[in-house]
Amino acid sequence: MTIKALTTKNLTKNYQSRSGTTCALNDINIDIDDKQIVSIMGPSGCGKSTLLQILGGINKPTSGTISFYGHEYSEGIPNEDLKKIGFVFQADNLLAWRTVKDNLYLPLEIMNLRGKEWDNRIHELLDMVGLKKFINAYPHELSGGMRQRIRLIRALVHNPNLLLMDQPFGALDAITRKLLNYEFLSLCKKTQKTILLVTNDIDEALLLSSKIYIMSSSPGKITNEVKYDLPIAERNRVTARTNKYQQLRIELKKIIQEEMMQLRVS
Ligand SMILES: Nc1ncnc2c1ncn2[C@@H]1O[C@H](COP(=O)(O)OP(=O)(O)OP(=O)(O)O)[C@@H](O)[C@H]1O
Ligand SMILES: [Mg+2]
Predict the structure, then answer these.
(1) I need a surface site. Which of 3, 6, 167, 172 has the fewest CB within 10 A?
(2) What 3-state class would DSSP assign to 202?
(3) Which CATH number fits the domain that encloses residue 188?
(4) What string of pLDDT tens digits covers the 266 residues of the chain?
(5) In terms of domains, do 173 and 211 share one?
(6) Nearest-atom index, ligand 1, CA of 47
(7) Structural domain boundaries, residue 96
(8) pTM recorded for the entire structure
């Protein structure tokens, strides 16, 4: 039987500001199975970060509900369950005055998790991304790609069930991004987490996810979804050359281009 990790029902978010009310999210209905990787794509300002912030407990919904592993919440996911969630934010937010090791300890300190098993986990994760020897380095001593890897494993340190990732590879050059996409794919195979990924890259979305939601803006809503049923375990560097992938790529590109046309018209 498939276990549902996360479901939202008519999730809506209105922001009130001096310039009036912005409907950032309007009736968002998504669902993610346990261990499934789902992506969200959409134009700037369509509410992708707002959605992730609400799911990650940083922001409150105006209305609607979230179900997290069978528990339904209308005020957002409570603190106890937020411990089962990891968040990679859109901004590069490693703490400049802390070493790699101390940055990685941050979620553990916040959640009051101490002990040898957690020290071991930090070493294991650093090993997984090939950065063991940088354990005592400061963020400014790392390249952009290395910082990104650290931010990624920092979100995994407390061993969450669900990982929320807001354009984690967005600030990287195309070559580093591709490299990290494949590294991330192999990390996904090893860790088998449930993941909700925001991305603006069609190939990143197709390589990594089995379902892609496409959003439009003003108000932010989901307009389309594309499914790709190839199991993650079977994906690799040749996946992008298969007919099925190329077919889906054309379909996805067309949907996104139509969204862009709508933006120009409105
Ligand atoms: N704290 C806030 N107060 C008022 N309006 C906000 C706030 N945060 C976001 N918004 C508005 O909500 C809408 C969605 O913003 P959001 O950051 O979620 O978009 P996004 O899809 O993540 O964009 P991008 O791709 O550029 O990161 C935008 O119109 C934005 O101006
Ligand atoms: Mg955003």
Answers:
(1) 3
(2) helix
(3) 3.40.50.300
(4) 789 999 999 999 999 988 889 899 999 999 999 999 999 999 999 999 999 999 999 999 999 999 999 999 998 999 999 999 999 988 888 999 999 999 999 999 998 888 999 999 999 999 989 999 999 999 999 998 899 999 999 999 999 999 999 999 887 888 888 988 998 999 899 989 999 999 999 999 999 999 999 999 888 999 999 999 999 999 999 999 999 999 999 999 999 988 888 776 65
(5) yes
(6) 18
(7) 92-159
(8) 0.95
